[in-house]
Amino acid sequence: MHGLINRAIELFLRDTYGQEAWDEIARRADLAPPEFEAMLDYPDALTVDVLAQAAQLLDKPEAEILEDIGTYLVSHPTAEALRRLLRFSGADFTDFLHSLDDLPARARLAVPQLKLPPVALTDHGQQMFSVTVGRREAAGFAFGHVLLGLLRAMADDYGALVLLEHKGCRDGVETIDVQLLEAAFATGRSFVLGAAG
Known about the structure:
Layout: H1 3-17, H2 19-28, H3 44-58, H4 62-75, H5 80-87, H6 93-98, H7 103-110, E1 119-125, E2 128-134, H8 143-158, E3 161-170, E4 173-182
Antiparallel strand pairs: 1-2, 2-4, 3-4
Helix pairs in contact: 1-2, 1-4, 2-3, 4-8
């Protein structure tokens, strides 16, 4: 697993639950030194173990932790660069949804070694969508839950009112149902795509 993914997990756990909780999770997972380097690769089994130890220590389902990580990646002040990169995907939440197919390729442009699972959007009409996420071979955890949290945070960022539901995994593919109830439900966070002219 790429160190950027592991580092995001570490930062989320430290920022949300504190250094002491992170130290205990790292100890239980035999992570030495007790921190991830962003540009190194790690065995997938280590990432899986860190998530399992976090779920056990925090007494939370792993899926919930993964969803919270997705939200953290967009909404935490330390992740402003990623939020801005994602907002360049479109002027509203619908544009953002239609750009999801390109997400793994855009990630590889920024970090060539970073391999995200394939993501595909199906537009069913009447503001109903489904997003499928291919499970990365042997990764051992559901990227779809991370994407679910990211979608929830991006909807808030755009001011859209959405219903999101993770429908589970079938034949190695996770599905998220998206119902866009109102595109401009609230005032979104300030963002300008281009320079004012």
